[in-house]
Amino acid sequence: MSAHLSWLEAAVIGALQGVAELFPVSSLGHSILLPAVIGGSWARDLDVTAKDSPYLAFVVGLHVATALAMIVYFWRDWVRILTGLVTSIRDRRVATDDQRLAWMLVLATIPVGLAGLVLDQLFRTLLAKPVPTAAFLVANGVLLIAVEQLARRRAAPAPAPGPAAASVDAPTVRLDAPTQVMRGGSVGVAAPTTAEEQADARLARLPLLTAVLIGASQILALLPGISRSGATIGTGLLSKLSHEDAARFAFLLATPVILAAGVLKLPELFGPAGDGIRGQVLLGSVLSGVGAYVSVRFLTRYFEHRSMRPFGVYCIVAGAACLAWFSLS
Q1: Structural domain includes residue 75
Q2: Long-range contacts of 43-46 (CB under 8 A, 24+ apart)
Q3: Which is more confident, 164 or 87?
Q4: How many structural domains does the chain have?
Q5: Model pTM?
Q6: Does 200 reside within a domain?
Q7: What distance in Å separates the CA atoms of residue 132 and residue 119, rounded to the nearest whole number?
Q8: Tell me: the pLDDT tens digits for 209-260?
Q9: Residue 249 falls inside a structural domain
Q10: Are 41 and 74 in contact (CB under 8 A)?
Q11: Lowest mean pLDDT: which of 55-64, 76-85, 132-141?
Q12: Which spans in the chain are helix H?
């Protein structure tokens, strides 16, 4: 079959996917709304609900490039984490931060993997249309702002103790001090030294149920317009993680999910669905990978000092504008 996907469409959607996947603004939502707003051949060619359309396979195939860019950016961390997983299986124990974090990522990925297999087709058929997507984008913005407000309230400092409660002999507790669960798995081993290792040590101390809950929040991203990174970062903030640690955990969690989603759809692009568009897929993938690398580099620094509120405002304005546009057209 002859599929229609122009070079310009492939380039725009590829770049959009790479950037929007990691920003808390929903890449799938933008991939549905932009063609609908432009209209014409864009709305016809880039319809994820259309029968025999290669667009969904193209979009999900771009996930492979996005995931590879994230692996390149975090490659040192993934070497440590995967080494921890292998040594944990070999030694049949979980004794170090890297081993614990590896298993946390594995277990936290299972819920969204199962949900995706069961619900993806249903949600795409029923909800991956412009009006529901725009409504979910507004909801995404409201949730981002609400989560930031709740997280700020939880992080409000407690009243300082009075003179009677103070004690000169009270020990000083450092929040970043290593516990007995350290890289080497025993007391006396050097504590994590790099900022990334220190962050992973903090993440490794999360209760397992909390880590799984943060990972399960990715299920919300099956709704077009709801952001994967927004859901996971928000759940992390409500679990009392800092913005920086919540974003790091969200990016680590997203990598295997995005990669798996892309790999599952990739065979379709080598079949009839990919006829006539493989060059466009390659162009879109390159731009998606570059966009993802630049985005993750920017966001890891952004969340050191800033919040998700600007993205929440953007989602509300963009979603409301799309709803108004669709109602008038």
Answers
A1: yes
A2: 44/4, 45/4, 45/5, 45/6, 45/9, 46/5, 46/9, 46/13
A3: 87
A4: 1
A5: 0.85
A6: yes
A7: 16
A8: 999 999 999 999 999 999 999 999 999 999 999 999 999 999 999 999 988 8
A9: yes
A10: no
A11: 55-64
A12: 7-20, 27-38, 40-45, 55-73, 75-91, 97-127, 130-154, 195-204, 208-216, 228-238, 243-269, 278-302, 309-328
Cα four-point dihedral sign 266, 136, 220, 306: positive
What is the residue-wise DSSP string for 59-116? Answer: HHHHHHHHHHHHHHHTHHHHHHHHHHHHHHHHHT---SHHHHHHHHHHHHHHHHHHHH
Residue 260: domain span: 7-153+179-328
Distance CA 89, CA 51 (A): 44
Residue 167 placed within a domain: no
Task: Reply yes or no on whether the pLDDT at 157 is more than 70.
Answer: no
Q: Is it the case that residue 282 has pLDDT exceeding 80?
A: yes
Rounded CA-CA distance 75/164 in Å is 51
How far from the centroid of its chain's Cα atoms is residue 320's Cα? Answer: 24
Rg over alpha carbons for the chain, rounded to the nearest Å, is 22
